[in-house]
Design a protein that fits this description.
Blueprint (H helix, E strand, L loop, with lengths): L9 H7 L2 H18 L5 H6 L2 H14 L5 H12 L3 H14 L3 E7 L2 E7 L2 E6 L7 E2 L1 H14 L3 E5 L3 E2 L3 H7 L2 E4 L1 H7 L10
Parallel strand pairs: 3-5, 4-6, 5-7
Antiparallel strand pairs: 1-2, 2-3
Helix pairs in contact: 1-4, 2-4, 5-9
Length: 195
């Protein structure tokens, strides 16, 4: 059985927050416990902050290589300025760099089939510039996925999903990459920004 943390537990919230929140809690809790506990128990009291220090370390590890908000916005603007040939070539390069075999597709609902270690994923990226994505492109991707019997699907859109599209993507287990995920996936591959 795999342990799964409750999504709104204190530690889950701290893992999604900046790492230094957990570190601050650990330091304050450790100092308070060391100050209020009897002499023989001060070390034990101070060690009660250890779980928060561990969460801070885990959060730091996760956030270390994440792009900043400024980098995400720069990536979004640069991708919005690209045409499909340039964007699709860049995306294909990112998939290959990450160890995937990539095949371009000419069919409704998906643009790429990527495979790694025998596991296939269909990718729809052609509408990456859309300001809002509704149900239709996600339904088309899901239909293509079912027809190809592919276990995974990925939709790429820099804009937001509508209120009906987001639950559909979650229910069908369609991964969605937006600006932050694209900034991470394309790290080091974007050409230098013009000056």
């Amino acid at each position: 059985m795999k342990f799964q943390m409750a999504p709104n537990s204190l530690f889950a919230i701290l893992l999604r927050s900046p790492w230094w929140y957990s570190l601050a809690i650990a330091l304050v809790l450790g100092a308070v416990m060391a100050a209020v506990m009897p002499d023989g128990w001060r070390v034990v009291g101070a060690l009660s902050s250890f779980p928060f220090a561990v969460v801070a370390a885990i959060a730091l590890g996760r956030q270390w290589k994440q792009p900043s908000a400024e980098q995400v916005e720069q990536t979004r603007q640069r991708l919005m300025a690209m045409g499909w040939p340039e964007f699709s070539a860049l995306l294909e390069q990112a998939f290959v760099r990450d160890g995937n075999r990539v095949q371009r597709l000419q069919q409704d609902g998906c643009d790429f089939e990527i495979e790694r270690a025998g596991r296939r994923m269909l990718v729809c990226a052609r509408r990456w510039k859309s300001a809002r994505t509704g149900l239709e492109p996600l339904r088309a991707l899901q239909a293509a996925r079912e027809a190809a019997e592919a276990p995974d699907a990925l939709y790429i859109a820099l804009g937001e999903l509508t209120d009906t599209a987001a639950p559909f993507a979650a229910q069908q287990r369609i991964a969605v990459w937006q600006a932050a995920e694209m900034a991470q996936a394309l790290r080091g591959l974007l050409p230098a920004a013009p000056r």
